[in-house]
Design brief:
- The complex is a heterodimer.
- Chain A has 17 helices and no strands.
- Chain A is mostly helical.
- The radius of gyration of chain A is 27 Å and the shape is flat.
- By secondary structure, chain B is mostly helical.
- Helix content of chain B is 58%, strand content 0%.
- Chain B contains five helices and no strands.
- In chain B, helix 1 (7-14) crosses helix 3 (34-52).
- The radius of gyration of chain B is 36 Å and the shape is rod-shaped.
- Classes of the chains: A mainly alpha, B mainly alpha.
- Chain A binds chain B through residues 4, 7-8, 11-12, 15, 18-19, 51-52, 55, 84, 87-88, 90-92, 94-95, 142-143, 146, 302-303, 305-310, 312-314, 317, 334, 338-339, 341, 375, 379, and chain B through 7-8, 11, 13-24, 27-28, 30-32, 37, 42-43, 45-51, 53.
C-alpha cells in the first residue's frame, strides 16, 4: 500500500479506538501493528473505488477477520464499549435531528438549535440499550453497528409529546435543563420590553423565579389535563409577565410599555421572531451578548474542557487572550511539552542552555510544576469565563 | 470537504460527536492535507493532556484525601485489623468452628441459677492430665 493509504488506515483505527476503546478492551494491542496487518492482507484502493467505498470495504474485511462479532457480544456490558455506542447513537441522532422538521415540542420548549424530541436522555439510553443491544446481536463490523443504530433511532425518535410532558412532570433534570435554557432569552426579551431592564442580575432574578415556579406547577400537575408543550410555555410566559410586574411594583416603577401589548408569537420558530417588536430581538439583549453558555453545555465537564482546548489552541478565538492572559510563557512551555513533544529536560536545554546536572533536575522539576499549575489555572479561569464570574 | 477543517469540527471529531459519515469526510480531507493533520495531532495531544490526565489526578486527590484525613486513617486501620482477623478466622481448622449461627440459643432458667445446678467443686478444678 502507498504511504497515503497507510496514513488513512492509521487514522481510521485511531478514530475507532477513540470511540470504542479497542486497545483498552483488548481488541488489538498496537495501532501500528494493525496498520501493517491491514496493508499486508487487504487490497489497495481500486481506481474506480471512492474513498468511502474503500474505507468501508477495508474496514469490513478487517473486522470480519478479527471476529468483531464475538468481541461485540462479549463487551456489551463493558462501560467503555457502552460509552462508545452511546456516543455513536448521540451523533447519529443529532444528524437525524438536523435533517428533520421541527416538532411542536421543540418549537415551544427547546432552546435554539437544541431538541427535546430527538434527545437521548440517560434514562432513554439505558432503556434502549437494554432492549436492543443483547448477546443475540450479530454485527460483523462497526459499519453494521452504525447501521443498526440508525435503524433503532429512526424507529424510536422523535419521542411523543406526551412522553416529554410526563418526563417534566416526573421532574427529569435532563429535560428541565433544556426548558430552563429555553426560558432565558424569553425572560430577557420580556424584561427588555416591559421593564426596560436587561442587566444580567435583573434578568437572572426573574429567570430563576420563573424556572422554580414553572417547575412546581408542572411537577405538581397544576396545569390543565391533558398537558401539551404549548400549555407549558404559555404558563411560563404568564409567570414572566407577572414577575416583571411584581418587580416593577416593588421598585415603584411603571412598565415601559403595556404588559398586555407584548405578545409572544408561539408559532414562530426562531428567537428573532419571538416578540412583536423588532426592538426586542434577542440580539438586542445585552445580557445575551457573547454568552458562551449558549454554545456549549456548561453542565457537561467534558464538553467544557473540549471547548477550552479549542479556545486555547485557536489564537484567533475571541476568548483566547482572556484565557491565557498572564500565563503566556507557561502556556508556551505547555505547548512545547505536549504538542512539540519536548521532555522537561529538553525544555530546560532550550530555554536555559547547558546547565549542570543538579540545576537540570531542579529546573526540570520547576517546569513540570509550572505546566501542571497552568493547566489547573486555565481550567479554573475558563470556568470563571463561561459562568461570567469576575473572580480573576 | 475541500476547505480546511474548522477547529470546532476537530474538537467534535476527537470527542466522538460526529457521525461516521461526517468522520469519513474529515478523514478524506486529512488524507490530502498535512496542515489539518498537524492541527488534529496537536489537538489530540492537548486533549490527552487535559482530559487524559484528569483520571490520574482524581485518583491522586482521592489518595491524598484518604492519607491526610485522620478519621479515614483510623477507619482504614480498623478495616485492616478486621480483615486480618477475618482471614485468620477463616483459615483456622474446620473442627474448631464455632456453631454460633446454627446452635440453638440457650436461655438460663431460674433453675439453672439455683445452688443445685452448680457443678461439684471437683469438676471446677483444673487437674493436669499427669495428676489424674
Amino acid at each position: 500500500m502507498v504511504p497515503k493509504e497507510k496514513k488513512s488506515i492509521k487514522e481510521f483505527l485511531i478514530k475507532e479506538n477513540e470511540r470504542f476503546s479497542l486497545t483498552r478492551l483488548g481488541f488489538f494491542e498496537s495501532i501500528d501493528a494493525e496498520v501493517d496487518f491491514i496493508s499486508e492482507n487487504f487490497q489497495t484502493k481500486g481506481e474506480e473505488e471512492s474513498f468511502g467505498e474503500w474505507k468501508n470495504r477495508i474496514m469490513s474485511e478487517y473486522y470480519a477477520k478479527k471476529d468483531f462479532s464475538s468481541f461485540c457480544c462479549n463487551h456489551l456490558n463493558d462501560e467503555f464499549f457502552e460509552k462508545g455506542i452511546k456516543s455513536l447513537l448521540q451523533a447519529e441522532l443529532h444528524d437525524i435531528f438536523i435533517a428533520s422538521e421541527k416538532t411542536q415540542v421543540d418549537t415551544f420548549l427547546a432552546p435554539t438549535d437544541d431538541t427535546l424530541s430527538y434527545a437521548l436522555s440517560p434514562k432513554l439510553f439505558q432503556k434502549l440499550y437494554g432492549e436492543e443491544f443483547n448477546s443475540s446481536l450479530s454485527l460483523s463490523s462497526t459499519k453494521e453497528l452504525d447501521t443498526l443504530c440508525i435503524k433503532i433511532l429512526k424507529e424510536r425518535f422523535p419521542v411523543e409529546e406526551s412522553f416529554v410532558v410526563l418526563e417534566l412532570e416526573e421532574n427529569s433534570n435532563f429535560y428541565w435543563g433544556k426548558v430552563y435554557s429555553r426560558l432565558l432569552p424569553l425572560v430577557g426579551g420580556y424584561s427588555y420590553h416591559i421593564a426596560g431592564q436587561y442587566t444580567s442580575d435583573f434578568v437572572h432574578d426573574i429567570w430563576s423565579d420563573t424556572c422554580c415556579t414553572l417547575n412546581s406547577a408542572v411537577v405538581g400537575q397544576k396545569l390543565q389535563k391533558p398537558t401539551f408543550a404549548k400549555d407549558i410555555i404559555s404558563y411560563a410566559v404568564g409567570i414572566i409577565k407577572n414577575k416583571n410586574r411584581e418587580l416593577l411594583r416593588n421598585r415603584g416603577k411603571m412598565p415601559k410599555t403595556s404588559i398586555d401589548s407584548v405578545s409572544y408569537k408561539l408559532t414562530q420558530e426562531t428567537d428573532d421572531n419571538y416578540f412583536n417588536n423588532l426592538e426586542t430581538v434577542p440580539s438586542n439583549f445585552p445580557s445575551q451578548d457573547e454568552k458562551i453558555g449558549t454554545y456549549i453545555d456548561v453542565k457537561d465537564p467534558e464538553a467544557v474542557k473540549n471547548y477550552m482546548i479549542v479556545v486555547l489552541y485557536n489564537k484567533e478565538h475571541p476568548l483566547h487572550d482572556k484565557l491565557v492572559k498572564g500565563f503566556e510563557d507557561k502556556v508556551t512551555l505547555m505547548f512545547e511539552h505536549y504538542i512539540d513533544d519536548l521532555s522537561y529536560e529538553d525544555l530546560v536545554e532550550k530555554h536555559f542552555g547547558k546547565v549542570s546536572e543538579k540545576d537540570m533536575i531542579r529546573i526540570a522539576a520547576r517546569i513540570r510544576q509550572d505546566v501542571k499549575r497552568v493547566k489547573e489555572r486555565l481550567v479554573n479561569r475558563f470556568d470563571s469565563i463561561i459562568n461570567n464570574k469576575d473572580n480573576e | 470537504m475541500s476547505k480546511h477543517i474548522d477547529i470546532n469540527d476537530i474538537s467534535r471529531y476527537v470527542s466522538n460527536q460526529m457521525s461516521p459519515k461526517e468522520e469519513m469526510s474529515v478523514q478524506e480531507h486529512l488524507n490530502g492535507c498535512d496542515e489539518c493533520t498537524k492541527k488534529l495531532k496537536d489537538f489530540r495531544a492537548l486533549h490527552a493532556a487535559f482530559v487524559g490526565e484528569e483520571k490520574v489526578n482524581s485518583f491522586q486527590k482521592f489518595f491524598i484525601t484518604v492519607y491526610h484525613n485522620p478519621i479515614i486513617r483510623v477507619a482504614a486501620v480498623i478495616a485492616i485489623v478486621a480483615g486480618v482477623g477475618f482471614a485468620v478466622y477463616s483459615s483456622r481448622p474446620k473442627g474448631a468452628k464455632i456453631n454460633a449461627g446454627t446452635q440453638a440459643p440457650t436461655f438460663l432458667s431460674a433453675d439453672s441459677l439455683s445452688r443445685d445446678s452448680i457443678p461439684d467443686q471437683d469438676t471446677m478444678i483444673y487437674v493436669p492430665e499427669e495428676n489424674k
